[in-house]
Amino acid sequence: LSTGIRGDYYQTKANDLVNGKLRYSQNLTFTNKKRDAFPGGYFSAKYHLNRRLTFFGGIGHSNRNPTLVERYLQASNGFYGNPDLKETKNTELDLGFQNKTEKTNLKVKTFYSSLDDYIYQQAYPQTWTNINARVYGVVINSMVSIRPNFFLEGDLSYQRGRKDSQPE
Predict the structure, then answer these.
(1) For residue range 62-91, what is the model confidence (pLDDT) as tens digits?
(2) pTM for this structure?
(3) H/E/C letters for each residue in 74-120?
(4) In angstroms, what CA-CA distances link 64 with 23, 52, 86, 125?
(5) Cα dist from 55 to 45, 93, 125, 151, 153, whole Å
(6) Backbone φ/ψ region at 164: left (φ over 0), alpha (ψ -120 to 50), beta
(7) 91-106 pLDDT, tens digit each
């Protein structure tokens, strides 16, 4: 069993002001500074069926704060940041197995992520907004020992996403 927790705190402020306002973002809001604080953590477990085969699973929650560009970019009247963006909240479930021998290692992991307030770049005006989305998929990693200290490794992954909400 394994677990972990963390906390994040961000404080940002834009300096590209005209008369105390962000030049182009004022189309959305008059906000020019933000404070963000949020927790994260995970819990995971491994079960060794035998010397070769291990099953694993876990659940975790993390956050991604908007970048300074996503919040405060002031490029033009049609391309600007959104200071009111919320952080993306990701809750993810992972399940998989690993089969190890002396010469091979095969690991297969499936995942499902629920993304609340996903930061999404919209077309016009070109800015960023929050939507809800889901992403799921599978990752396969394989390694074969060709000779001592020489390995051939390959990865294959597939993921699929879905927007649960659309930009306003």
Answers:
(1) 999 999 899 888 888 888 888 889 999 999
(2) 0.81
(3) EEECCEECCCCCCCEEEEEEEEEEEEECCCEEEEEEEEEEEEEEEEE
(4) 26, 36, 9, 23
(5) 8, 14, 47, 24, 21
(6) alpha
(7) 999 999 999 999 999 9
